[in-house]
Amino acid sequence: MKTLTKLIKYAIYARKSSEAEDRQALSIESQISEDGSLAKRQGIKVDDDFIFSESRSAKLPFQRTVFEDLIKRIERGRFQGIIAWHPNRLSRNAIDAARLIDLMDRGLLLEIVTPSQTFKNTPSDKFFFNMLTSQAKLENDNKGVDVKRGLRKKYEQGVVPGIAKPGYVNDYGKKGDCKILPDPERFELVKKMFEMYLTGKYSVREVHEYSDKVLGFRTIQRKKEGGKPIKLSQLYRTLKDPYYAGFFYAINENGERQEYQVNPAVPRMITREQHYRILTMMGCSDRPRPQTRKNLSAYSGLAKCVDCGGPVTAEIKHQIICPECRHKFSYLNRDECPNCELSISKMKGAKFLRYIYLHCSRWGRKGCRQKSVEERKANETMASYVQENLEISPALSEWCLAYLNELEKKDALLAKDVTVAWERELSKKEHEYDGLVGMHAKGLIEEDKFMRLSAPILADIEEIREKLKDTAGERKDAAARVFSFPVGLSEVFLSDDFDAKKDALIEISQNLTLHDKKLNVCLKKPLQIFADGLLEVKAKNPRFEPRNIVDTSSRNEDFVAACPTLLRG
After folding, report:
1. Is the entire prediction scored with pTM above 0.70?
2. Beta strands 111-113 and 81-83: pairing type?
3. β-bridge mates for residue 11, sequence order
4. What phi and psi, each to the nearest 5 degrees, are found at residue 363?
5. CB-CB contact of 93 with 58 (8 Å)
6. How far apart, in Å, are the Cα atoms of 272 and each of 34, 250, 269, 279?
7. Residue 511: in which H helix or E strand, if any?
8. What is the pLDDT of residues 10-19, one digit of tens each?
9. pLDDT tens, 225-273?
10. 312: Cα separation from own chain's centroid
11. How many CB atoms lie within 10 A of CB 165?
12. Chain-centre distance of CA 471, in angstroms?
């Protein structure tokens, strides 16, 4: 036996993986130390050059470079024996285990030495070695099933595993009961980024620069990273992430992509509609396209094609009318008239023209046939629509604001009673939740039942808190904005003020579409209520708010009755 051992050249192999499979395994240094002690006890000499170690997983074959080098050396006859701490250090998959057994069958590998057993080139030893490596594979497979089951459980509870997204923090409390909480330092900053981008006036790059230089946003400082401005690529992912709207996607047990709802206790930053609007502004849901701000048209990035859903873009046309033959042509990249061949530099009294056309970008569907419309006509259409449906005189606006103040005084007592009622309901819900927490802490109810019972209570608490935030003063400010905004609005669309026109479109339009060379507007809810009331009053009283404004204060009571919802918030 000793003579055979002296003839065999041995190599030590040590492996450690950072994955869950090796949580209980010794470190590489400890494995090498144990293998060295084993070699001394058995009278085996191993040179330092014959020690192989690596930090790689053994679940997949042909993925370990050091192990592959060891196999090649055994095939060349450099080594005939391997010393390892355990068979699962050599293989956790069927292919690598079969390769080692095949080396034994060919007489190239004579021994695999471990602290518990030495595997020789015998049928029984090869069988036991194969069984131990198969057991290691079984452990991996079972752990994979358990991990996937645990992930699905988290998905159903509305929790996304891993580090919390920007604006949120992990609550590492009781094991198995980790929660996501709003980051007190960064939640409002990230929300501000969403609000800026949703205005349509800023590109992602401009929002990124604002977050760094104005907001001073810095990621959470961790051991090896963090404490720096958010990366531009990460900001793109954040703006597209549906998690901030209250839902996310994950793979279910059937291997299919499924939508899950975020736990109701996690506050949302945006709505689902705003999330889809961001995806539209970026191009489409699965391929983000950065939106560069070109001050060609205020409609770019806000309007979309009603036929294919693609965003509407602006294109500028430069033309010239030849004074000689009166032929109109595009003069960019031309030196002369294509009709009479008169040089542009020699033209006297030539008329230069500049047009901006709005058209579908064809991102939604290649076969889209919606035609373009000149921006001037789009401005006239919007101005006409505003005059007929929204615009009011300064006198009526002032009267509405004054009447709004009177309503505020009358409703002050009622608002106080409503607030007290909601505070009473909030206290009741918080008491119910505290009772569940106490029962859960004492072990009277299981984890699953606690999560099922507490989720609707937390949702009710969040909803009541939002209602308490929606004070009468905030409703008054919103209504005051509706009554003051439409004054002189048509003039904005007929002007050349890019920013004012962009702000007006964002303020009034919930959905702006291009169809049959016309822009169609879907008003936001407060303005739609206002427009419906205005049209109803005009139908009853045709002299209400005529084009040439006169004193109409005696007829304004009709408008109050037609628009009670808006006036009362």
Report:
1. no
2. parallel
3. 82
4. -75, -30
5. yes
6. 58, 17, 10, 11
7. strand 509-515
8. 999 998 876 5
9. 888 899 998 999 999 899 999 898 888 877 778 888 888 888 899 988 8
10. 23
11. 18
12. 30
